[in-house]
Each structure stands twice: as structure tokens, then as C-alpha cells.
Amino acid sequence: MSIQKPLSPPHRPAPLGGSLVTPVTVICAVLSLIAVYFLAKRFIFGLGAVTNINDGFPWGVWIAWDVVIGTALACGGYSMALLVYILNKGRYHPLVRPALLASLFGYTLGGASVMFDLGRYWNFYHIFTPGLAHPDSVMFEVAVCISLYIMVMWVEFSPAFFDRFGWKGMKTLVERLMFAFIGLGVLLPSMHQSSLGSLLVVFGYQIHPLWQTPLLPLLFLLSAIAMGFAVVVFESTLATSGFRLKSETRLLAGIASVMNGLLAAYLVIRFGDLAVSGKLGLAFSSGFLSLMFWLEIAFFALPLVLLQGARRNRARCLFIGAVSMLVGGGLYRMDGFLVAYQTGAGWTYFPSLPELMVTIGLIAFEVLAYIVLVRVLPVLHPNKSEPAVAAAAAAE
Amino acid sequence: MTISRRNFLKAAAGGGAVLATTGVADPALARPNLEMPPKAIGLLYDATLCVGCKACVVACREANDLSPVFSTDEKLWDTPLDISAYTFNVIKMYKDGSGEHKDQLKDGHAFVKRSCLHCVDPSCVSACPVSAMEKNAENGIVSYDADRCIGCRYCVAACPYGVPRFQYDTPKPKIGKCELCRHRLPEGKIAACAEKCPTGATLFGTVEQIKGEIARRRAAKPGEMVAYERQRVGSGDTHEKKAPLYVNHVYGEKELGGTQMMMLSGVPFVALGMPELPERSYSSISETIQHTLYGGLIAPVVALGGLVALAWRASKNHQDEE
To answer: Which domain range does residue A19 map to?
Structure first.
């Protein structure tokens, strides 16, 4: 099956067209189906039939990865909106739509995957039910903000659909009001990305002191925005090479410098907090956890070193720096929610294979949906180096 | 398009409004530890009186309609190793060396009752997003309502004592925990564990009565004969025993702002597996952060105003370009 590419000016996003059945999409589809099988098992027999979670580790990778890391990896749209619409850096505009699409999927699936993990999912609406909703609960704040943000993102992305279906009136209306949705679309992730860190505060001593601090919300927020920029660099590099589009290295170098600013702030605050509260020594005396701590720091520090000055303009350095940032931010979250979480002797957790297959299937489904949508909807800027397109671009 | 330094700073300040408020905690929004409810009831567990008979474990099963839990191959009798979603109360044992001396750290043994401590400022209640975990404003019992629960297990993860437990082996799971037999209280009955305890090691009472009893026991000289009540403070059903040497620590008096089940012991509580905890409750720290950021939704609304204004300006600029 292939889709005809409509004509559109080269500086506007356009559907990429091309075949939807490729080795990558087929593999992604198979992995998604495997996840569906294990999810069916979970809903028939209970969480224990598929996962290794227990009363010492009641949250496993379905929370730590699918929701906490998953939504941080989906911060591209948030970070780009912050840069383009709040800091008014219009030149990065071409990166907004693809970032938003990835965010839309990351969040929608992260939000949906919560339903797999909720033991009594049929009661989910209680979070929004006055009289039952408990605003003092950090979980309440996270759930409400993520739900609202998913809706806001669908509105933000809706012009791409209206383009496709030729609904001019709707498109104009939504675009006129877009500034309000953009404001919400920056506020809501600021709230819940920080709150994902706050979730750990009430765990008290159960989170190792190298991670437990009242500054968790700030550290989670800063690293989430930095991960958002990193994921834009990551996805843009993959998309431009995968779909053979014109390289956006110059724009990405600018993104990288903003990311490095955030990273530097993150590291200063993290070490400053440890120093002020007299916990720096623990970075050397906590055995395995010290190792994990320094591993995180190394991944956070690598982009700062690698993306200095002119090296920032090299595609390979940009890609490695972005990946390092993503791994560091992911590790920080994995450590906070699982590795540095200790509930007492006798409890262990490592995800089961079926549990991991669900997480992998979810990622595969995201990749699949992204590929299908950029081929069908106007998301990417197809500045292919074909002579006709190049000439048209030059003529403008 | 260019950005002036002034505009950039303005934008940064607007976008950072949320951030800025995280650093400066308004004392009015600070949430101190919650206070003991006026008619709080609870339990006194005196490890030196406990003989490890586990009558309380059986009584709890009967009162809460729970089936036996097996940990041996034969499955002949109820042998839970720990509390779970199907066991709300267990007696555990500390043992060192030969284990011959009761309530002694070296070469000794001691018992400990594990069940919900009914915190004055419970983490599970603070964590629960749907008010399924609630603390009764009068008697202070921390209760669970499955009809409200969404099964997120934040309470399981948050409890510093590892008390709320989840059912992983069913598609319709519930949380299980001690609710101090709140369903028996209207019938004039007390918690089943205290009712069936033959030595009065587990004693029911108001927190005020329990505190008085603790003071009386700690005042007694080790070795002198003391009368101990069974079932509840003021029951009059007593037996006599030599006063033990207690460690100088009442567990639950100060831990995270206090608990309504309090414990006395002859060995340090760390040996019995109880965590060492500060006086300030974790829920108060967590809720102070939440109230500071989101109290009355003031900071979010101000931030939203700034963000929408900036987005509006940017969208106008971008239109001009096109």
C-alpha cells in the first residue's frame, strides 16, 4: 500500500508518502501483538501472572519505564513549545510538529499504559470524581495533569489532521486559539514532570539519601526538559537519515546548547543540594548505589564535554550527546523509582520476560504509529535533495 | 527574527514562574504534622509479655473472614510468614545465638507483632489519589475502601512500615490491611487480636489510656511484681508477672509524628525489624511541597497567564514572518 504525496510548498510540513509495509513496520507490528497477548493474560489472571512486582516493589517497569521515563522521553513537544513559543525562538519552528507528534504518542501510550498497571482500572474515573479525588495526593496531581495534557496535545496537533481532510474552517479556528493551548501545553507538563519527582518524597527513608531530597521536583523538571531537547535531536537525526531528508544539524546545534544549559543547572543543583545537606560522602560510601550515582553523573556530564563549541555542529557528536542525555535521565528515573528504592530486607525485583515484552511492545507500537503518521499526515519537512524541489526552494 | 535581551529575560521569568515558587516555601502553606485525633483508639503491644502463641493471628483471620495461608508443603495449618493482603496480623521472632534468654539481645529471642500502626499522619492516606485510604477524624482508624480504590499501589509503596499489601493473584485485586476491627466496634467489641491475647501483650484502649499504661509499666522497678490487664485497659482481668527491663524507647510515640499502636520491648526495636524514623512525617514534607506549588492553584494560574501571553506574542511574530 502506498500513499500519494500531495503537492505542497517545500517549507511547509507535508506527508512523506511511501510504503507502509517495510521490515521495520512489520517487526514493530509483531512485537505489538506479543504485548497484546501478555496484556490479555494480565487482565484475565491478575498482575502477578505476568509481572514480578510484589509488596516490596509494588511498582515495576510498567511504571518506572512506561510512565515515568516514557513521558520524559515524550517531552520533545513540551521543550520545543517552551523554546519556540515561550522564549520566542521562531527559527526552530520546523522541529515543533515532529516533536509534538512523538510527544503525543509517548504521552497517549504512557497514559493508556497506566490502565494496564492499575489493579482496579475500572475505578479510574474516581480520580476526577469530586468527593473522592484527593488533591493532597501527588498521584492525583500527576494523573490529572497528564490526562489534561494529552487532550491539549491532541488539540495542538489537530491542524495536521484538518490539513489532511481539508477542513479549512476548523483549522483556522484552532490555529486562532492555539496560543491558549500552547500556554496550557507548557504549564501542564511543567506541573506533572516535576510531580513525578515529588511522588518519591513521601517514600521518605525508603529512597536512598543520594536521591531523596525536597528538590526532587526541580531536578525531575530540569532533566525532563533537557531530555525533551535531547529526544528532538535524537528523533530528528533518525528521521533525516531514515527518510533521507535534509539534515537539520544547524538547528540541532542550537537545541544542544540550550540542553547543555539545563544540564549544567541540573548538575549544580544536584551537587549543591548534596553538599548543603552533608550527603556528598554517600556518593563514595554507598557501594553499588554509589556506582549507579556516578554512572548517572557520567551520562549527564558527557554531553556537556562533547558538545562544546564547534563540535556541536557535528551530526555524530550531537547524536551521541543526545543519547547520553537520554540514558542519564532514564537512569536517574530508574534509580529513583527502583534501584535506590529499598523497602527492607528480603524484597527483590527484576522484571519478568512477559513484563518486559509488554514494555517493548509499547515502544514498538509507538515507532509503528509514528512511521505511519508521518507518511500519511503533514508532519515532517520533506526537503529532499531532488533537483525539482531544490529549484523550487531556491526560487522562493 | 531577533530577540532582545530584555524580551528573553522577560520570557525566561514568565516561564520560570513555576520554578521560582518551588524554591521559596511560604510558611503559611507549610503543612505541619497532623495531630492525634481527640478520641483516638489503638493498641499497646508489650513484646515482653508476648509468648508467641499466635492466638491473635487466628483471631484476626476469624474476625476478618480470611482463609489460612500456608508456607509449608503439607499445608496442615495456618503458617503465614509475613503480613500480606490475606494476613493482616502476624507475630514475628527475633533470635540470636542459642536464643535461650527471652527479651535479650545476645543469645536471646523476642517477639514482635506486625500489623498496621494506625499512624497519626499516615503516608498511605496522603498518597491515595481517590480517598480509598482514610483516617477517621474521631477515632483515628486508618481504613480502606475497595469500592473507591483504583489499585495504583501508591499506598503499598509509600507506607514506611510496609503495611498495606496488594493481591497480585486475581484480576479483581484489593488492598489488605488491619483496620483495627472497625466493623466490630459498633457491636461493642474490641480488636480481635487484643480480645484473644492470653497474656495481655496486645491490649486495646484509647490512646490516652495506653499512654497512661505505658507510663505505669515503665515506672515499675525491673523484678517487682506487677499486675497486667488482658483485652483492654480497665478490663479488670489481670495476671501478675515480674516487671521486665525495657529499652528506653516507646515505639510509636514519636515516629513520624506518632502512631496509635505503640510498642514496648526488652530489645532495641531495630532488632525487631522496626525502622528508625524521624519525628516529622513524610506526608507533611510531601504535602508542603504540593501546597507551596499548587495551593489554591495560585501559582499555576499566574504561570498560565504569563505563558499564554508569551505564546500569543510569539504566535503573532510567527504570523508576521509568513
So the answer is: 14-52+357-373
**Domain assignment of residue A396, yes or no:** no
CA distance B124 to B158: 6
CA distance B184 to chain A (A): 25
Interval A306-361: pLDDT, tens:
988 777 788 888 999 999 999 999 999 999 999 999 988 889 999 999 999 999 99
B269 in contact with chain A, both atoms CB, cutoff 8 A: no
Q: Inspect the interface and report whether the beta carbons of A46 and B168 lie closer than 8 Å.
A: yes
Q: Is residue A378 part of a domain?
A: no
Contact A201 B19 (CB under 8 A): no
d(CA A212, nearest CA chain B) in Å: 11
pLDDT per residue over A255-311, tens digit each?
999 999 999 999 999 999 999 999 999 999 999 999 999 999 999 999 999 988 777
- The domain tally of chain A equals 2
Q: How many helices (H) and strands (E) does chain B have?
A: 9, 12
Q: Do A262 and A230 have their domain in common?
A: yes
pLDDT per residue over B41-65, tens digit each?
999 999 999 999 999 999 999 999 9
Any domain includes A97: yes
A353-376 and A96-117 helices cross at what angle (nearest 10)? Answer: 150
Q: Are residues A193 and A258 in the same domain?
A: yes
Most distant CA atoms of chain A, gap in Å: 71
Which residue in chain B is spatially nearest to A138 when comparing CA positions?
B127
Do A274 and A318 share a domain, yes or no? Answer: yes
User: Which of B11, B22, B130 is facing A217, going by the closest CB pair?
Assistant: B22
Q: Are residues A184 and A39 in the same domain?
A: no
Q: Are A44 and A126 found together in one domain? A: no
Residue B3 is classified by DSSP as: -
| Cβ-contact B11, B306 below 8 angstroms | no
Nearest to A201 among B153, B168, B286 (CB): B286
